Amino acid sequence: MKRYIVCALAAALSVSIAHAGDASRGKELSAPCAACHGADGNSVAPDFPRLAGQYETYLFRALQDYKWGARKNAIMAGQVEKLEKRDMADLAAYFASQQGPLHTKH
Ligand code: HEC
């Protein structure tokens, strides 16, 4: 019985942790983003911000802001138009998990 309760708790916990994005699903969704931001989020053109290694919460917030118009950019508004909250969380998790330029300096 005790063991059962522990398992149930662990399951409940992993569900709440799973609120953070799923990077592997984010990778699948990221194909259209690659054209501008680079496949791993390290864009080569100065017009497109690097997403790799950026904080997950920051990326998620930015995507939501484009979606709801708090941050206005015609290109990105079109990109997030069809994305669900979960998609944006997964995309944020994927790009955050990629190695950005700052990591190489350690
Ligand atoms: C056609 C080019 C293009 C595509 C495709 C594109 N983006 Fe962007 N993205 C931009 C530009 C340009 C900006 C800078 C906009 C601004 O000034 O707010 C930007 C900004 C962002 C930012 C904010 C970055 C920061 O540092 O604040 C995020 C996050 C982002 N894009 C994610 C995505 C994701 C995820 C996708 C794929 C679903 C995507 N973008 C597809 C051009 C693009």
Features:
single chain, 106 residues, mainly alpha, binds heme C
CATH class identity: Mainly Alpha
| Biggest sheet record | none
Strand content: under 5%
Helical fraction equals 55-70%
Distance between the termini: 48 Å
How many beta-strand elements?
Answer: 0
Number of helices: 6
CATH superfamily assignment? Cytochrome c-like domain
List the ligand species. heme C
**Uncertain segments:** none
- Kindly give the count of domains: 1
Question: What can you see in these coordinates?
Answer:
The protein is mainly alpha-helical. It has a single domain (21-100), classed as Cytochrome c-like domain (Cytochrome Bc1 Complex, Chain D, domain 2, Orthogonal Bundle). The chain contains 6 helices and no strands. Helix 4 (56-68) runs antiparallel to helix 6 (85-97). The protein is elongated. The mean pLDDT is 88. Heme C is lined by residues 32-33, 35-37, 47-49, 51, 59, 62-63, 71, 73, 75-76, 79, 91. The site of heme C (HEC) has 18 residues, from helix 3, helix 4 and helix 5.
